[in-house]
Specification:
- By secondary structure, this protein is an alpha/beta fold.
- It has one domain: VSR Endonuclease (Endonuclease, Chain A), CATH 3.40.960.
- It is 42% helix and 15% strand.
- Strands 1-2-3-4-5 form a 5-stranded mixed beta sheet, with helices on both faces.
- The radius of gyration is 17 Å and the shape is globular.
- The N terminus and C terminus are likely disordered.
- The protein binds zinc ion.
- This is Very short patch repair endonuclease.
- It comes from Nocardioides baculatus.
- InterPro entries: DNA_mismatch_endonuc_vsr (IPR004603), Restrct_endonuc-II-like (IPR011335).
- Belongs to the Vsr family.
């Protein structure tokens, strides 16, 4: 029931915040929030590693390009000519199935936060697809060379045939790889809710 209501909200507010039914948060969580926020701003290492790998392969991209239809959101790594958007999702903030561990204190709030992040991701993907972009999502724990290889293939295929949409190319591609780099718990590519 809550899930259905959530999806309805997502559909109704494409340009604003994705979810409005934020559970109450109790004071003691503030310190944890501050710690997470600091990590969120600092830890862009997985994204930098991917960018380095893409650059090494001769690919040129832009960073922090605005999402069409929502100026408050940005694409992590954007190939504007090929219209390929790449996101490196933080394992904690985006609920990685392998690494997300929910804090014990205020667990309801944290669950809500991660779910609303994921809903926002889906909404971002939809906005991009509607504007003709292909979306690639990688987890921060994934091997940057594996991710870069898949991005390279997609970018080249879209430049070669930009007007040939297929289901495979327009659906969000979640990178799948068995090779996992060393995991850093609670690192992130997102910001805390204060700004969103
Ligand atoms: Zn992970």
């Amino acid at each position: 029931m809550a899930h259905l209501r959530h999806r309805k909200l997502v559909r109704e507010c494409c340009t604003g915040s994705v979810s409005k039914n934020e559970p109450a948060r109790i004071r003691p969580d503030e310190e944890l929030s501050r710690r997470m926020s600091r990590r969120a701003r600092k830890d862009t290492a997985p994204e930098l590693a991917l960018r380095h790998e893409l650059h090494r392969r001769g690919l040129r991209y832009r960073v922090q390009v605005k999402v069409p239809g929502n100026n408050r959101r940005t694409i992590d790594v954007a190939f504007t000519r090929a219209k390929v958007a790449v996101f490196v999702d933080g394992c904690f903030w985006h609920g990685c199935p392998n690494h997300h561990v929910q804090p014990l204190a205020n667990s309801e709030w944290w669950q809500w936060k991660v779910e609303s992040n994921r809903a926002r991701d889906r909404d971002t993907d939809r906005l991009l697809r509607d504007a003709g972009w292909s979306v690639v999502r990688a987890w921060e724990h994934q091997d940057p060379s594996v991710v870069a290889g898949q991005v390279e293939t997609l970018v080249h295929s879209k430049i070669a045939a930009p007007t040939e949409p297929t289901d495979k190319r327009t659906a969000t591609q979640r990178i799948t790889s068995r090779k996992v780099t060393e995991h850093k718990q609670l690192s992130s590519g997102d910001s805390l809710p204060s700004g969103e």
